[in-house]
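Lab notebook: predicted structure, single chain.

Context: the supervisor wants predicted structures on file for every construct in the current expression panel, including those that have not yet been purified. This is the next one on the list. No modifications to the sequence; it matches the entry in the shared construct table.
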Amino acid sequence: MEVTSHQPSAQSDLSKLKDLIRSESFPFWLFLVLWFGQLCLALEPSWGDGTYYDYGYMVILLVPFFFHSRWSEIKGAGDRLIVEAPKMVQSPLVVIFFGAAFCSIVMLRLIQTVDSGWRAPLVVHAFLMIGFAAFCLSRVIGGRALLTFFPCAVLILLAVPLPSAVEFSLIHGLTERVVDTAVFANRMLGLPVTSSGETLFANGIPLHVSEGCSGIRSFQSSIFAGFVLGEFIRLSILNRLILLGLSLFTAFCMNCLRVIYLVQHAAGHPGADLQKVHDISGYVSLTLTFITIFALSSFLKKSEHGGEQQAAAATV
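Prediction complete. Output recorded below exactly as produced.
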């Protein structure tokens, strides 16, 4: 009975897929998938190097999901696409724009093969991809409706590595603040901790606050998580900004607590293997950060929904 109950649904999904492939709009959707896919291929080395951007793999699934959700909310978009898609192929402006964007991306990819550590070509590549996709969509749904897909563009940009100078400045600033907070907190707890640059000294034991301890990983992951949750549950713009701010604050606090704990552990266990404790505390800190962000997003959504109910009751 269970097999029979699921069979009509599977046949319906297969029928919809066949209808999509046979539809006049299929070449447009196929182009968007390939256009987005080539950017993902360019970014994959940055996602897979094990540093700060491994959450980028989630973008491959999240962007199509959010795009489809936003597209389904635009009335008559499918009908307009069927009418406008053939016109775009025959438009000299579209052809010229595509040719310029394609040639530019080829040059950027060649630059990336020569110097893979240079981030600027990846940033330009992402803006070219988003720019041409936005240009095509604007011809279908209009300029004002194009703002509907703004979250998708931001989500893509969040997966692009920051320029090296910006990233270095961010890491240095976060490291200084984490060191200062750890010194102050441990002194309040009765442990005479001193610092020299990015190194803490607890009872003569040196503890270097590295890039991983600076909070840059949790900082960027928290921005990504806060933005994704805000879009997923459709928070208001104000609550999305509040969630992003609270996400960053949570990441910073959790990371400071992690460093404080490591200092306390090193002082209390001079011969212990700090590397194992370092890794475990990092996973715990990151997990607690994400749980807290999820709880904050749920609270903001409930408060937003409660405010809407009060406004509706006052209107009545």
